[in-house]
């Protein structure tokens, strides 16, 4: 094996290994929701929720008691983990994300 090829291969492998921890160091903020461990997708405003959160059985009926504003026409509040999310029923688009109060 030629020496320059071996050195180039080692440099490439070392460079790729250095990017792994950087990609995992993303920090969650209060304006996003971790959807599920299955796909690791973060939901943010203007994103689309999975179809299950568009169903009426997922709607929060007592939104006033939880201190939430009235949902916009054609939208509903749902809870995804520790956040309340206002979702357009027809499209699943997220209008607002609010932390839950305990």
From TrEMBL:
<dbReference type="InterPro" id="IPR024572">
    <property type="entry name" value="RcnB"/>
</dbReference>
<protein>
    <submittedName>
        <fullName>RcnB family protein</fullName>
    </submittedName>
</protein>
<feature type="region of interest" description="Disordered">
    <location>
        <begin position="29"/>
        <end position="51"/>
    </location>
</feature>
<dbReference type="Pfam" id="PF11776">
    <property type="entry name" value="RcnB"/>
</dbReference>
<keyword id="KW-0732">Signal</keyword>
<feature type="signal peptide">
    <location>
        <begin position="1"/>
        <end position="25"/>
    </location>
</feature>
<feature type="compositionally biased region" description="Basic and acidic residues">
    <location>
        <begin position="42"/>
        <end position="51"/>
    </location>
</feature>
């Amino acid at each position: 094996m030629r020496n320059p090829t071996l050195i180039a291969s080692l440099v490439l492998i070392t460079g790729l290994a250095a990017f792994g921890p950087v990609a995992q160091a993303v920090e969650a903020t209060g304006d996003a929701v971790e959807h599920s461990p299955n796909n690791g997708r973060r939901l943010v405003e203007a994103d689309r929720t999975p179809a299950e959160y568009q169903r009426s059985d997922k709607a929060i009926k007592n939104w006033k008691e939880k201190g939430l504003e009235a949902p916009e026409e054609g939208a509903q509040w749902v809870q995804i983990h520790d956040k309340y999310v206002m979702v357009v029923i027809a499209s699943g688009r997220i209008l607002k994300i609010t932390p839950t109060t305990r």
